[in-house]
Design goal:
Number of strands: 5
InterPro entries: DUF5789 (IPR043899)
Low-confidence stretches: 78-85
Structural class: alpha+beta
Shape: globular
Radius of gyration: 13 Å
Pfam families: DUF5789 (PF19102)
Order of helices and strands: EHEHEEHEH
Oligomer: single chain
Number of helices: 4
Distance between the termini: 45 Å
Protein name: DUF2795 domain-containing protein
Strand content: 15-25%
Length: about 80
């Protein structure tokens, strides 16, 4: 069964895993999840397999590593800023 989630639900979806969890186990458990991003989609298991950590102690630990792995297109238009004008 393939599951599709919006990027905004990513962190809550990671809470469904049992922690601590290894990168390989998390990638396998999330291999059927597709994340809808601002500009396309990606397989969550594949993204997890690309993170640098070997194991994660909490959902926020894994989420932070995923934020560093996500393509810039995941969160919006390249070059856009939500900062001051």
């Amino acid at each position: 069964m393939n599951e599709r989630i919006n990027l905004s639900r990513l962190e809550s979806r990671l809470e469904d895993l049992s922690y601590p969890v290894t990168r390989d186990d998390a990638a396998e458990e999330l291999s059927d999840v597709t994340v809808q991003m601002a500009d396309g989609e990606a397989n969550l298991g594949a993204l997890v397999s690309e993170v640098g950590g070997g194991a994660f102690t909490s959902p926020s630990d894994l989420y932070e590593d995923l934020q560093n792995t996500m393509p810039v297109e995941a969160i919006g238009e390249p070059g856009q800023s939500d900062g001051d004008a």
